């Protein structure tokens, strides 16, 4: 089925495109797309209403719209000396595929969100596993892909890229622990790789976090909880613009078991202002630092024999430290006619030191522990231009983009003794510079109830590597390492088709989409003069959606094909090339606001992933994922609480079906329930949050491989089950002050 799906759609929709539905407003949510022009609806020949609809989430309380850019005209002026007045609609761009979704702050507030990983769990079909401590990047699963720590999911925070190229620990390593959840106003999710703007690592999809603070003034939040949880958050929003703010977070805890302590500090600040004459600038900056411990894994047979308990730590010395410093500067230029241009430059400094030992003493009696370091500097720039043109008397909306990103990285990998932590072997000592230069274009053409989209993207990748340990022979080492360079180009097509089944804005719409995605290679694995071997992914999707005032429903059938895929087992550090892999599945998502103050987001994804040559399942992917976020916020009407008192209730439910593991094993089913209750009167608020309400004994990560944690035991290569424990029931109490 996946082969037929990909083949049929790629041939049928290669030259078709899906244009957006009439514009939907989202008051109170600062969005990446800034302002959106109110285009005439080709089906009704009139401008669409500005009333927000459930398909494009809005904040629970109306806020002044983000004013990062001057209001655009709705149509080109007929003559330069007689400009027409514009009708402005502010909000996110309407969906152009069946599975695009925007999760607003009201949905994010429906369930407890203690950290960045809790935000990601709201994304339909996405599993985020935090199995190695509070400071390490989460392992992600989406649409049949085990994205490891980010290699198949593109993450973006306010325009800043998160994925790190050729990372020492995992390709596309994406650590979002620096994000303060209180300043994320929305998640813009594009599943699949069907849009031309999606870049490196946008294989299973793209998640963009838009930043802003809901209320003006000063907000202080202090939290205490079980297992030594302590957290302090302060946000400042000086004016009416939700996108201008500063926020700081301090947190620490000893964790729910051995080797789970952590401490972190994060600062995020953003400002937008108009310089006059139609020029608007934006600045986003932040700093983050953390130190954390990691428990490692527990062998299942040790647990059953009583040698270890469920929350044991296999070995000490595991954990690490991270720092990240980042800055983005952007400018939106004066509008000319009906076009607009945005320029951005950004820089990121990142540093990671990580110690892991997942196999104990299997390889060496001194210990198998690895210390990895990755110090990176990222510099980049991008330009985007949008405008409408007439071609053969038909309006065509164009989007164009150019960009470049250069990463300079130093990385090492050493083995250390478990007895005293000293090093006894150097395995990697490398420096590299990886530069990606890209351009993309996309056009959409409405024809009555039909809309067509066609786009393309080109990425040129150049890599220079210096490996200090290459060809090193301990018997006679008199060299100085080995240098090499490589270059390659990836070309991709994006296309889609949309059909509206009615003339109203809330009519059902049918979609077909196709896209070529890619992920860049591991720099150290390239040889001299090699054409940089991008991993290319072809994906297709058919589906439908209905966006109404109170209800939004999405249904999609998807499939993808990877020519020369590989499976990286980060527990033992081995890469296995599997050849061609195929993935297919179906997903459904519902967002509803049936009553005032009540919001619900429910989704389910069923996926299948296998190696075509052997017809075997890929390990670790998530075949079935379901998520429900339900919350209510309003005035209870109880006189003893006072007329100005508001009450909030919410829950988040997660179900993850058994995942395939190596050697025909299966993981256990996971069901988790989180809940919160909050009350606010005037400037003061009190919030009680409970995660894992049912106190389930669940395994956050499960693996199958050989290990030996007792150095006196005989060595064995027999595979065994291992797991990292998920958190038990944890309660916290927060006091909020709004000034």
Automatic annotation (TrEMBL):
Check the UniProt entry and state the signal peptide residues, or none: 1-17
- Ranges for domain TonB-dependent receptor-like beta-barrel come to 306-693
Sorted alphabetically, the keyword list is: Cell outer membrane, Membrane, Receptor, Signal, TonB box, Transmembrane, Transmembrane beta strand, Transport
Q: Which organism is it from?
A: Pseudomyxococcus hansupus
Q: Where is the TonB-dependent receptor plug domain?
A: 98-206
In Pfam terms, one family for this protein is: TonB_dep_Rec_b-barrel
Q: Where is this region: Disordered?
A: 20-100
Any idea which GO molecular function terms this record carries? siderophore uptake transmembrane transporter activity
Q: Which residues form a coiled coil?
A: none
Name where it mostly resides. membrane
List the protein's name.
Outer membrane receptor protein
Transmembrane residue ranges: none
